[in-house]
Amino acid sequence: MVNEFDRLAVFVCDSDGGSAEKHLSKLKDSELVGLKNVLGQNLLFIAVGADKVKIIEYLLSNNNDPKSKILAPDKSKVTPLHLAAEHKSAKVFRILLSHLPADTNLHEVVDCHKRSILHYAAQNGSFEVCQIIVSEEMMPIDPRDELNQTPLMYAASSNFGKYYCKKFQFK
Fold first, then answer.
1. 3-state secondary structure of 122
2. What letter does residue 108 receive in the DSSP assignment?
3. φ, ψ for residue 59 (rounded to 5)?
4. Spatial CB neighbours of 27, under 8 Å, sequence gap ≥ 6
5. Which UniProt keywords apply (predicted)?
6. pTM of the full predicted structure?
7. Quick check: 17 and 54 in contact, CB under 8 A?
């Protein structure tokens, strides 16, 4: 049985943005906020994962508190910001950042394994997102997860290790 969230998620992923906006605009923001899938993810997760910029901007601009959507954790405490870093989408990452207050403590945004956004970016080869985080000093560069691993350790052990070790110059 397909529920309302699943129906909207498919629509969001398949649309060009404009048609999804028209459909979503018929729903009240309170209805959209409450919609989640079995993993605890809202529609912003789906739009970020599908790299749907127009829909992301629509969901954030039609919300009184975009921070609550951007930092809304799923059941594993992963946020849409983690997902943007993981999917190597610097453009989406910047859009999400632009809707956060300047005083947002990104170092406190960790998943259930205490992995930061920088861990996700480094592990998945999202060099541009790593550069944004490091150059703008958004968080410490060496946070440790529950396995005592830093983002650079993840980068070095991934397929992107050689590239990172040569290019990543930490302050």
1. helix
2. G
3. -60, -35
4. none
5. ANK repeat, Repeat
6. 0.80
7. yes
